[in-house]
């Protein structure tokens, strides 16, 4: 199940990047720059949820599917921001998750692993 979701997220990221490059919206071009930088650096990332935004329910749904946690654990994670979602995540997987979360209004930070 996680592999299917990951594959869908990577596909959605590719589609998102294609539509961003053809669009002239400043807010969306900033998001594409972030994702492009992540793909260029290529090393493992730490995904940090800085702010869930106004759509906490959607953020919780995405994180429940990604992490495989229960509702209570995921809710606690989202409410304890800034919170590390996962460490040592491959760059492409981190970019896909970050894109999905940003689409629902969450603020995400991707940090290089040392």
Q: Care to describe what's here?
A:
- By secondary structure, the chain is α+β, with helices and mostly antiparallel strands.
- Helix content is 62%, strand content 18%.
- It contains five helices and three strands.
- It has a three-stranded antiparallel sheet, with helices on one face.
- 25% of the residues are buried.
Strand order of the largest sheet: 2-1-3
Count of runs of 4 or more consecutive helical residues: 5
Q: Can you tell me the overall shape?
A: globular
- Find the structural class using helix and strand composition: alpha+beta
- Helix and strand succession? HHEHHEHE
Into which percent range does the helicity of residues fall? 55-70%
Distance between the termini: 30 Å
Biggest β-sheet description:
3 strands, antiparallel
Task: Evaluate the radius of gyration.
Answer: 13 Å
Summed over residues and divided by their number, the pLDDT gives a mean of 75
Beta fraction: 15-25%
Number of E-state strands: 3
**Low-pLDDT segments, ≥5 res:** 19-40
Task: Give the key terms.
single chain; 114 residues; alpha+beta; 5 helices; globular
What is the structure about, briefly put?
The chain is built from 5 helices and 3 strands.
Q: Can you lay out the helices and strands and say which pair or pack?
A:
Layout: H1 2-22, H2 26-41, E1 45-51, H3 56-67, H4 71-79, E2 83-89, H5 91-103, E3 107-112
